[in-house]
Amino acid sequence: MEKGSIKVEGLENEEDVNKVLQALESVWGVRNAEVSLANKTATFTYDEKAASHVDFLQAVKDIGFNINE
């Protein structure tokens, strides 16, 4: 099990948090995901045999948010 964390630019409200959370949870192999509006971060655990960190970055970018890498 791998852990990942990303800084998400543009999180402004709970609706944004829910969008990002849904995007992360839609990635194959995700085990747990959390998004913090206060810290503007997303953390997640995933099966490294089913997904990679890049998959999570792309999922968030695909819904219109920028990642601060």
Helical content class: 25-40%
The general outline is globular
Gyration radius, in Å: 11 Å
Category from helices, strands and their pairing: alpha+beta
Low-pLDDT runs of 5+ residues are none
The count of DSSP E runs of length 2 or more, i.e. the number of strands, is 4
What's the pLDDT, averaged over the residues?
A: 96
Distance N to C terminus: 22 Å
**Oligomeric form:** single chain
Major sheet attributes? 4 strands, antiparallel
**Order of strands in the sheet with most strands:** 2-3-1-4
Count of helical stretches: 2
Order of helices and strands: EHEEHE
What do these coordinates show?
The protein is an alpha+beta fold and 69 residues long. Helices cover 32% and strands 35% of the residues. It has helices spanning 14-25, 53-62, and strands at residues 2-9, 30-36, 41-46, 66-68. The N and C termini lie far apart (22 Å).
In short:
With 69 residues, this protein is an alpha+beta fold.
What is the element layout, followed by pairings?
Elements: E1 2-9, H1 14-25, E2 30-36, E3 41-46, H2 53-62, E4 66-68
Antiparallel strand pairs: 1-3, 1-4, 2-3
